[in-house]
Structures are given as structure tokens and as C-alpha cells.
Amino acid sequence: MSDQRTGLWLIGARGSVATTAVSGLLALRAGLAPPTGCVTARPELAEVDLPSWDDIVVGGHDVVTTSLDKRAEQLAHAGVLPHHLLPSLAEGLRAADAEIRDGYHPATHRGAQATAADRLTADLVSFRERHGLARVVVVNVSSTEPPVPHVPEHDDLALLEAALADPERAVLPPSSLAAYAALRAGCPFVDFTPSAGVALPALDRLAVDLGLPYAGRDGKTGETLLRTVLAPMFTARGLRVRSWSGTNLLGGGDGATLQDAEHAASKLESKARGLAALLGEPVTAPLHIDNVPDLGEQKTAWDHVSFEGFLGARMSLQFTWTGLDSSLAAPLVLDLARLVAAAHADGQSGALGALAFFFKDPLGHDEHRFAEQTRELHAWARGLGRYGA
Amino acid sequence: MSDQRTGLWLIGARGSVATTAVSGLLALRAGLAPPTGCVTARPELAEVDLPSWDDIVVGGHDVVTTSLDKRAEQLAHAGVLPHHLLPSLAEGLRAADAEIRDGYHPATHRGAQATAADRLTADLVSFRERHGLARVVVVNVSSTEPPVPHVPEHDDLALLEAALADPERAVLPPSSLAAYAALRAGCPFVDFTPSAGVALPALDRLAVDLGLPYAGRDGKTGETLLRTVLAPMFTARGLRVRSWSGTNLLGGGDGATLQDAEHAASKLESKARGLAALLGEPVTAPLHIDNVPDLGEQKTAWDHVSFEGFLGARMSLQFTWTGLDSSLAAPLVLDLARLVAAAHADGQSGALGALAFFFKDPLGHDEHRFAEQTRELHAWARGLGRYGA
Amino acid sequence: MSDQRTGLWLIGARGSVATTAVSGLLALRAGLAPPTGCVTARPELAEVDLPSWDDIVVGGHDVVTTSLDKRAEQLAHAGVLPHHLLPSLAEGLRAADAEIRDGYHPATHRGAQATAADRLTADLVSFRERHGLARVVVVNVSSTEPPVPHVPEHDDLALLEAALADPERAVLPPSSLAAYAALRAGCPFVDFTPSAGVALPALDRLAVDLGLPYAGRDGKTGETLLRTVLAPMFTARGLRVRSWSGTNLLGGGDGATLQDAEHAASKLESKARGLAALLGEPVTAPLHIDNVPDLGEQKTAWDHVSFEGFLGARMSLQFTWTGLDSSLAAPLVLDLARLVAAAHADGQSGALGALAFFFKDPLGHDEHRFAEQTRELHAWARGLGRYGA
Amino acid sequence: MSDQRTGLWLIGARGSVATTAVSGLLALRAGLAPPTGCVTARPELAEVDLPSWDDIVVGGHDVVTTSLDKRAEQLAHAGVLPHHLLPSLAEGLRAADAEIRDGYHPATHRGAQATAADRLTADLVSFRERHGLARVVVVNVSSTEPPVPHVPEHDDLALLEAALADPERAVLPPSSLAAYAALRAGCPFVDFTPSAGVALPALDRLAVDLGLPYAGRDGKTGETLLRTVLAPMFTARGLRVRSWSGTNLLGGGDGATLQDAEHAASKLESKARGLAALLGEPVTAPLHIDNVPDLGEQKTAWDHVSFEGFLGARMSLQFTWTGLDSSLAAPLVLDLARLVAAAHADGQSGALGALAFFFKDPLGHDEHRFAEQTRELHAWARGLGRYGA
Questions:
Q1: Which positions fall inside the Myo-inositol-1-phosphate synthase GAPDH-like domain (chains A, B, C, D) (predicted)?
Q2: Where are the CATH 3.30.360.10 domain residues in chain B?
Q3: Is the CB of residue A94 less than 8 Å away from at least one CB of chain D?
Q4: Does the structure show a pLDDT above 70 at C279?
Q5: Which CATH entry fits the domain spanning C6-218+327-382: 3.30.10.20, 3.30.70.260, 3.40.50.720, 3.40.50.300?
């Protein structure tokens, strides 16, 4: 058995992104599809030693029970997965589904959060041992949570663990409890959502103490990707952006979650931080996320940029992006599993700032310009040691 | 008198771009406008020693006679120049207009092209001496010419000069005759249009022999600027562009020139070369330039990009750019005058590939990615010596 | 003196719409501009006898003091009025400005609203008599007010007048107080804004009792105009609209007013009513109005329509409208003055449903389809008697 | 057997439009889909007596041999037909396919065109008799042909028939030969393409002589539909359209056909005629049709309208239409079969101008305004007699 065998553990393992990632992994492994949208398959990273598609074993947590093969059918209907692949993937999907364990339900959990964390940790350890894996990378692709009020326990590991042991308290949101459990199991962690997750000082402390790398947060797959590409253009040319207005229409589960103003807040905050950083000055930037159920898995974003040129000349740029979010996110999830596994094998710990390329709100780095992020990713990845040597 | 005094000689000195550049230079000098759209005013280039706005003296050639102050009024009506600046600029515009000499008219010129070149050279030398200038940078901002059939004389300086002396031949298009005359006067040359200009092997030879730098070609101010920013995004993310369709609507003189299919050909060729280079493979890329006179100085470009993601998912991006071409081009013309003057002072000669940032079809470089061009520009400019020391 | 001389009294007489309307009227009268955007100048209405441009005398109320000629300069800077017309209009604008009286300030008014109404009425009567006018049409083009809580006094004229006499109460919002004062002065009233204005049962009663026509409300000048044109297309073709999402970006005073959620509410409500009526079933229809000050007088609306065709095929339409609201509204204000004057001369009273063509939220009619509204307008106007006979 | 049984004979019976129409008819008949996109299913036409879905029998001509059920699979892959319907439709598609006869191949046909016409006519008569049909409506949905040079034989029936008998000549393009054969078989004819078809004076003569109605031409399903809706809005509001620029991106067979400039010519001509008629004056109207194969069945049109308002204010509208052409066309083909059958039963002959609603280039009518066309269609249809009585 190869010593490169690597686990990918998905929080939200039966969601659209996870289902697409697992389906795609199976298709790649079977040679049924090219690695379109996979950054680690680019020629620039050809020399980097990473776990191969064959070496990746998938498991996960979820609170819903619709099986992966059923979810794949739904995604084929929605245009995310091709109908003709389904028969070839069904068996692999059922096998992956068998590795999914019940996630943490804040509404129904009784007792201290520490107990729940112990169970999640045990699931991870068992998965790793059962499959003889060199390591397991945990990736959060579950629904966005509302922003979490900051409490002192989030800043201090000892205080946090005391609170976790208190059966009367629920000091961590589910995403952070998952991160805590992953770290306790010795697993690197990736936040693909804007939820709090691992982005609490106490959890950063824990990761560093345990020598574990982590990355995040909020996968950059649409409007923000374009903004981090276009804003540097205006800046490099000395053109003054006056306003940057945006509207996002989305259906699917994400649309329903984000229509709730409280949940949307964390998404909007993370987007606004980036834009201000990119332009170097605050601009008028109204931004909306609308739930439009009939769009299904499709996400349509319209941005209108008003800018000023020489002698005050008024000009504009507008764009419409029509993307399938799960199709854009899924290959990046596979990329992150490979890269974070390699970083772990390389002995890196703490926030992996070099992975800013993947995120709207990068942890461990304040670089938002996409081209710079690309260069840094390439340089960092080429510097990684051999995997599984 | 400062030894930094530098000439900017515009071919097409009464056109929209030139008039905007001169108006803007006057406004900058008078502190009436910020240097929006000027790349050399960016903080990244703050340490580079360049001729100041006060040190630049303007002259030029043109075949039309409408004066610069009259043209400025027309451009205010078109929304390019602000009405309220006109009174403050009128005197400066009349002074600049007095430095404009009659250009080369292929239709009315009698005799050998060498005679015409001599006159153009003499105009430049006289301008440099009359104003005691350290050097004069010649920038071609005249109308786009049709593509020129290649002849052996374009490749060999001796053959070329023999042909120029032949009263029966017109071996060079006006843009190249202007470049030849500029080099003969010891002046660096910049091609801001897609015309042949200095981009002939024989003229490259001449520039290198005379120790003169040159730069070009075809200022990147709209659709192509966006393409060189967006295409690398798709590539870096491993997304496969399937088609990239474009339509450009433009009025003004440029629209009228380019509606002629022959003239448009050189513009379209230069755009297509760049797109193929950026994406690394040929894609379906229909492209149109339409003359829509009522748009005046405004240029509207619509691009539709169809791309494929993970497992063949079909997605699209479309954008509409609404720009005032002269407002975008003029500050770049001033930037190029400053940078090329500094390169000359620094002893550089031949094609300045580090200026690819400015051009659709860069001479001396095959880098089309905007972010890379930006980095190279900054690095190169920071390496220039002191100006006028 | 012609017995056709007709007053146009503008509430918000120094606002952008009013200034543009008055400037345009002066330009039309002087033969300096064609009646572009004036519906009453269309060939279809050529035979309708209406007050001529020469017969219209302008006055109004406002609470701001910046003079009309100063406002016209600002609007020229904003691209709404052409610079070259200003000198020819200045004298006429000053004359019109002299006919503007201080409006009703709810914040500073002391005493019963009846007193304020009496003053407004007196201003109108004095204007009519001073200029020997056959009639005065009052048009509200002031800023949008927040929605008004309904009280029983709004339904009953006697109760309303009792409340108006009570110095402790402010039973009517300014727009409705203006409508009340206009009716009491014997003047027809037009609501060009979404404010309550004349649209209260007690005021309808008063108008009918006094034999006065009125029209409204909320001038249809952009996104809604398009919706009332496009929605019937989908319906006539049996295509099923699934969602109709909209974003409006606007600067100017209107943007600032509408950014306040409370003010925007009346605008959004009026838009939603129309869409549901047009499509015959409720659809997902998120709609935003954003204040983007740098856009100035420009209003940019983006709409995304997702619709379903045969066998469930998914398709979409999106549009971007870039309009100058004052340029679109002003000629309609002149049209309404002419048409409502003619209706008054014709003896009509109450809500003029045939004018639904002009409004987002038509009073006296539930027809929202633009083509039907056009036919009804034409038929009604052709049926009017001779004016001023 | 009902005396309402009606044939629908499709020229190009295995093309995308025909396959979608037949699939949809089967689905409607089986109650598997609602009649979305069918105009004859609208409440406004509820009282009109038309052949029911159950009464329609399908046959046709084609020159390709891929079977209808195979084509349906391709269209499901392209997003036009829903995958889940295919199993239920397969048998019906095979039955319809058995009624398809070999079409006319100009390249391989030997001998006089009259011989070919006789064969086509015989196919129609046999179909009608075999199924005991009251009548057969022939609808041309084959690929667009290049414009046909006009010859005197097209104007005179006797000359035409003499030429048809000449084995050395091919006086009619395939679409017109099909129309001729249909009329000779006593069948009404509908031109859903821009090809010449029935629109030749000699064929009009023949139709009138034989008491047969016909309709055409060029189904209005996308950009032109929008233009006939939007242009009347500008006109009704007195706004002056200055330019109307359009770009159409299409893949599929249609894209390939129209990329050939000669074929596109008939499409572009038909579009331009309509726009000029709608606006009442010529405007700058560049229009492109680009073949973009990766778009498959999708058609994307971008239009940019520049217009002028009061006092010369410059504004714009742009829209992007993303349609599936076959999904839009197919229900109209069914509508036309029903309506033209009813017109025939009603004794009407010649061009059915009241069907202008369906066409870009209406025969027998010069009304291009969509709303007016809708009204005329409704009025005309309500005036039809009982069908099959």
C-alpha cells in the first residue's frame, strides 16, 4: 500500500459542492473526464509532487441523509453533472456515501460541545486508521453560517476548552467545532465557506501547537474572482474607480441560506473587505445577494463599475457572470486537498497564506490581487518537498 | 535652462488623442487636474526620475488645419474635455498649435519620399534646437492605416534608402516615413497605432545603429486591455475558454477609418494575435468593429466568453466596456513620452519590450498578460538611471 | 390676449425635472430644439387641439432657493442640458424663477395645515389672475416622500378638513397638501411622483365635487417603462416568466432620497404592483434601488428575466438601461400639462385613466401594458374638444 | 374517425426545430408537459375551434437520415429536451420517423424539377389518404437557403411551369419547389425560414387560384421579437433612436449555415427591413451573425440601442437574449399548423397577413409592431368558423 494514500473528509459531504467534487474525483480516476478547472493539473505545477487522484479516499460528515448517488442525479438535472457519466459513477458514489457519518446538529445535540467534538474526532481517526491513510485533510463545504458574536473564549485556547466542557454552553458554531475536532484528530483543515471555522485565534493557536496547517476562507469562484482580477487593472492604469455595484442572483441551497439577511452578512462583509483592499480607497459599493430559486445551481452576478479617467472623463464597465458554483468550487476542493496534504507532509503549520489564490477572504495573507496570488501559489507549491517520500 | 527639457512631437497632432494629451498636459502643469490615468504618476513609480510636466514642450505634424483650441471645444462638446477648463487652456493650446507643422500627404506629395522625409526631419531638428531640448520623443497618434504589403525593401536599410530616393516609388506608408524621419533626426519613436510605423526590420536596424529606443504598437485602451486581464484568469484556474466573441461600436474619426474593411484588418489582426497567445490555444473568436457615428468619441465593446468547467459544465462571462478612447489614450501618450525619453537618456536602444504594458501588439516582447506586463514595467522603470543628470 | 394661455405650476419647481422642463419649454418656444421625447408632438396626436408652447406660462413652489439659471448650469455640467443653449435660456429662466413661491415646509410650519393650504391656494390664484390664464395645471415633481400611514381622515373630506383646521395635527403629507390647495384653487393636479399626493379618497371626492380632473402617479421613465413593454411579450407568446430581478443605480437628489429605505418603499411597492398585474401571476422579483452618487443625473437599471419555454427549456433576457431621468421626465411633464389642461377645458373630472401611459402606478385605470396604454391615450386625446374655443 | 384529423408535414423533418416540435406534440398529447410557448393555448384564444393535439398527425421530408429518436437524444444533451421525457417519447418518435420521406436534393437530382415536384406531391397525397386526413399543412423548417436571384419565371406561373419541365434548368430553390409541390397537392404552406419558399408572385398566384392559404416568413423567435416590441416604445415616446447595433452568436446547424455570408444575407435583409419600418426612418444598424459552434443550440443576441431624448440628451439601452431557438420555434410551428388548418377550413386563401405576429418578414402585411400584431392575430382567430364541422 502506497504511503501517499490521503483522506479527503468533507464537512457537508452530501451538499452540491461535495457531491460534484466526489463525482469528479471518480471520473478523473476512471479517465472519463479531463481535469478542467483543477489548478493542480496546470503545467505550471506539473513538477509538484502531490497525492494522485488514485490516492485520495473520501469520507465526511453531514446532517442530511439523501445519498450521494441520488444527489448526483439531482445535479445532472440541474446541468452540473453530465447525464451520461452517472451510470459509471454510481458504484463509487455509493462507496463514498458509506463513509459519511452523521454531522453535528446544534439544534438536537444534548450535553457539552466537547462530547460532540470527541465523536467527530473519533470518526476522523477511525477513517484514517481503517483506510491506512497517511493523513486526512478536512474541508468545510457546508452551508454558510450567520456571523458569530465574538467572545473571549475564541481568543484563548484554555478558556475555550473549559467552555466546551460546559454542558450549558455552545461556545462554538458548527464550523468551528468541526475545525476543533479536525485539529484534535491531527488533521489539517480548510474553510471553503465564509463561516467562522478555523479563523479564531484559539484555533490558530491549537493548529500551531499541533504542527497542523490550515487554509481559508470562502472559496473564490465568481464575482469576487473577477473583482480581484479587474480591480488591479484600474489601479495599475491609474484610473479612479468611483463606484462598484453588484447584484448576485442565486438559487439552490445557497440562495435560500443567504436570503436570510443574517447569513448574508458574513458573505457581504468578506466581499467588501477585499474590494477596499484592492482599490486602496473606499468606494460606493452596494452589493446584494438575492435568492432566485428558479435559477437552481446557476449563479448570475452583475457588476457595474463607474470610473473616472483623464480630466474627469466618466466611463463604465459592466459584466455579467453566469456560473455553476458547484462546478467551479469542486475542482478547487480537490486542489486544496492535494496542496494542504503536501503542506502537512512538508511540515508546515498555521495559516497557509500562499493559498490566498483560492479564497475571498484569505487567512494568513492580505494579498487580494489575483495575479500576485497566482505567482505566490506557484512559487510556494514548487518549493514543497516530495510527497509521501 | 534645465537640461531635462524634453520635446513631445505628435504625428496627428490635431487629432482627438493629441488634443486631449496636450490639453491634459496644460491642465496638469497648471494644477487644474490630477494625473488620473497617468501610469507614471502611480506610487509604484514615484522614485523613477522622469521629465516633469513642466519640462515637456509639445509640437507635431498634421495634415489637417483645424486649430487645437477649436478641436478642444469639439472634444468638450463630446464629453472628453470638461467645459470649465477650456478658458484656462486656450492660450496654451494656441501656443502648442503654433508648433504644429504640415504633415506628409501621400496623395499630394510630388517627388521622392526621401525629400519628404528630409523636410520632416528638419522640422524635428528645428523644434529641438529652437527650444533647446535635450531630446524629442516622437509619438504617432494619427489615424490607422491599411495593412502594408511586405516588400524586400522593408527588411534591408540600404534597399529601403535607395527606394526612398526613387521619385517613382512610395515604398513606405506615412507612419513608417514618419518613423524614418524621426530616427534620422535622432529621435526615439513610439507607435500608438496599429500602423506599420517603426515595425519594419529596416527601421529596427536604423534605430539600433543610431542608438535610439522605440516602442509600440497600438495603444491598449479598451477591449484588449480587458482581455489581457481576463484571459490569464481563465488560464490560471484551468477553465477552458471555448469561444470569445467581440463587437466594438465606435464613432469619431476612428470609427470612420475602421469601417473600411482594409483599415480594420490591421486592428483585427493585432487583436487576434494577442488572444491566441493568452489562451494558449486557438478559440472561436469572431470580432467586429462597427462605425456608429452617433456614439461620437465613445467606444462601446461587448465581449461574450463561453467557457467550460469541471466535467464539461458550460458557463459564460460577458462584459460591456463604455470608454472614451481619447481620455484613456492621452495620459498613456504622456507616460510614454516620459518613459521613452528616460530610456534614451539611459542609453537604451531598439525595441523597448518592457513597455508591452501599453500595447495591444507589443514590439520586442511576447508577453500579453497584463499583470506580468505591469511587473515588468515597474521593474524596468525602477532600473532607469537619473534623468538629465 | 389668447384665451388659451395656460399655467403650468410645478411643485418642486427648482428640482432637476422642473428645471429641465422649463429650459426645454424655453428652447422649444425659441425654436432652438425639436420636441424629442414629447408625446404630444407625435404625428398621431397632430390633430388634437392643445395649448401651444407659446401659450404656457410657468410658476411653482419650492423649498430651496438656488435659482433656475444656476440649476440649469449644474444640469449642463451633468450632461442633461447642452452647454451651448444656456446663454439663450438665461433670461427666460430668470423670469420663470421670479414666479416661484416658497413651498410648504412641514418642519418649520407653525399652526394649522389649513393656513398653509390657504397660502398655497392664494399663490395659485394670484398667478392665474396676474397672467390672465384660462387655467393652471399643477404638477408635483418634488422629491419622493415616505409612504403615509392611512388614517380615516384620508377617506372623508369633512373629517379631513376638520383635521386640517386643527393646529395640533399634520394630517396630510406635503404632496397631498399641495394637491388639496391646488383643487381648492380650481386647478387640475398631476402627481409625477409616487408620493400620496391626490391619491386619497377624500381628495378624489373633492376633485369630483369641483369638476376638476387629475392624473398620476409616478412618471414611467425607465425600468418600469421597459417592463410594461417586455412583460406583455412574454405573456402573448405563452412563455412563463420565472423570476424578474432588478437593480437600479442612481445618483442625484433622487438617489439620496431613495437610499432611505422608508422612502424607497413607496417606489418599490408601486413597481411590484405593476409587474404582478402584467404577468398575471406572482414571480420572484427582487428589486433594489441603490444610491450611487457619482452617477449624478444618470440612472442605470439592470434587469434579469429568467423564463421557461416549451418542455421546460430555460432561457433568459437581461437588459441595461442607461437613462437621464430628468431628460426623460421633463417632456412628459409638458405633455401632461397640455393634456390635462385640455381635459379640464373639455369638462372632464376625477382620475384621468386614459393617461395611464405616463405612469408606473396609474390612477383610475388598471391597464399596465404599454401598447394598450398607447392606444387608449391616442383614442382619448383624439376625442377631446377644441381647446380654448 | 373525427373529420378534424389534420396533417402536419415538416420540410426538414429531422432538424432541431422539427424534432422539438414532434417531441413536444407527443408530450402534450400524453399530458407530460404544459403547452408553454404555445400561443394557441393562451386564454385569449380559448374559444377558437382548432384541431386538438390528438388530431394532429406528423410526417415530412428530409435529406438527412438520422432518426428522430436519435435526434431527440442529441437535443436532450443540448438542453433543449428534458432527459426524463425521452423514454416516454421514443415510440412516438419512431412512428413519426416512419412517416418521413426523402426530400429533394438539388445536388443529386437528375432531370426536370417537375419530376421532383411530382414525387413530393405524391408523398403528400399518399400521407393524407393513408391517414384519412381532412387536410395537411406543410411547414418549412429546413436550413436557410442563400438569396435567390430573381428571374421572370418567378413572376409568372405559366413561365414557371414551362421552366420546371425543362430538364436543363433548376429554376426554383428547394424551399420554393417544396411550396410548389405542397400547393399542387392542395396543401396550405407555411415558411418558417427566410428562404424564398412560397414568397414568389407565381406561387402566390397558384395558391389563390387553388384557394389555398399560406403564411410566412422567418419565424420571429429572438432578437427580432424584442426589436418589434422595443422599437414601438421609443416611437410612442417620441425618443429618437440614433443607432441599433446587433450581434448574434449561434451554434448548431443554423450557425454553420449562416456563417456563410451568402446564406446570412437573406436573414440580415429580412431583419433590416423590419427595423426601418418600425422606426420610421433609417438608422445606423450594423448587424452580425456569427457561428460559434460551442454554443450548440443556444442563441445569444446582444443589441445596443443609442437614443436621444429631450434637448439632445444621449442615452442607451442594451440587452442580451439567451434563447434556445428550437424551444422557441417548435411551439409556434404547432400553433401555425393549427391556425393555418383552421384558415383553410374557413375557406381563406392567399397570404394570411393576420399571422404577421409569428414572422420577422410577414407576408401579406406590413405591420411589424408586436402589440398590433398580437391584437390582429386575436381578432382574426376569433373570427374563424368552427373547425371540422
A1: 222-326
A2: 223-324
A3: no
A4: yes
A5: 3.40.50.720
**CATH 3.40.50.720 in chain A, residues?**
6-219+327-382
CA C196 – CA B111 distance, rounded (Å):
80
Closest CA to A75 of A247, A251, A321: A251
Intervals of CATH 3.40.50.720 along chain D = 6-218+327-382
D306 neighbors B292 (Cβ within 8 angstroms): yes
- Cα separation, B250 vs B323, in Å, equals 10
Interval B202-213 mean pLDDT: 98
How is residue A32 written as a grid cell?
472519463
Which residue, B262, B59, B247, B60, is CA-closest to B144?
B262
**What tens digit of pLDDT does each residue of D319-330 get?**
999 999 999 999
Give the number of C-alpha atoms closer than 13 A to the C-alpha of residue B123, restricted to the C-beta side: 25
Question: Rounded to an integer, what distance in angstroms lies between the CA atom of residue B113 and that of residue B119?
Answer: 10
Residues facing residue D299 across a β-bridge: D250, D323
- Give the distance, in angstroms, between the CA of residue B167 and the centroid of all CA atoms in the same chain: 30
Residues of A in contact with D72 (CB under 8 A): none
Residue C309: which of D36, D319, D369 has the nearest Cβ?
D36
**pLDDT of B3 over the 90 cut:** no
Per the CB < 8 Å rule, is B290 touching D318?
no
Residues 6+ apart with CB under 8 A from A265: A146, A147
Q: Sheet holding A6-11: strands in order across?
A: A100-102, A56-62, A6-11, A135-140, A189-191, A213-216, A350-351
Closest-CA residue of chain D to A78:
D79
Give strand pairing partners of B322.
A316, B300
Q: What is the pTM of this model?
A: 0.95
Architecture of domain C223-324: 2-Layer Sandwich (3.30)
Contact D123, D101 (CB under 8 A): yes
In this structure, are residues A211 and A230 in contact, taking their beta carbons and an 8 Å threshold?
no
Q: How much is the pLDDT for D49? A: 95
Q: How far apart are CA A78 and CA A85, in angstroms?
A: 14
Answer whether A83 sits within 8 Å of D83, measured CB to CB.
yes
Please tell me the distance in Å from D351's CA to the nearest CA on chain A.
41
Chain A nearest C-alpha distance from D43 (Å): 25
All three cell numbers of B196: 506599420
CA C319 to chain centre: 25
Which strands, in side-by-side order, build the sheet including D100-102?
D100-102, D56-62, D6-11, D135-140, D189-191, D213-215, D350-351
ipTM metric: 0.95
Per-residue confidence band for C197, with pLDDT thresholds at 50, 70 and 90: very high
* Residue tagged 459513477 (cell numbers): A89
Q: Which residue matches cell numbers 481576463?
A: B230
Name the closest residue on chain D to residue C230, using Cα atoms.
D229
Give A6-219+327-382's CATH code, choosing from 3.40.50.720, 3.90.1200.10, 3.40.50.1010, 2.60.120.280.
Answer: 3.40.50.720
Are D39 and C237 within 8 A, CB to CB? yes
User: Which of B73, B83, B317 to probe the C interface (max C CBs under 10 A)?
Assistant: B83
- Residues from chain B that touch A316, judged by Cβ atoms under 8 A, are 321-322
Q: Cell 410650519 appears where?
A: C109
* Contact in structure between A213 and A162 (CB atoms under 8 Å): no
Indicate whether D263 pLDDT > 90: no
3-state class (DSSP) for residue B129: helix
Chains with 3 or more CB pairs under 8 A to chain B? A, C, D
> What distance in Å separates the CA atoms of residue B146 and residue B137, rounded to the nearest whole number?
24
In sequence order, the β-bridge partners of residue D307 are D241, D315
Contact D49, D386 (CB under 8 A): yes
CB contact under 8 A, B370 and A233: yes
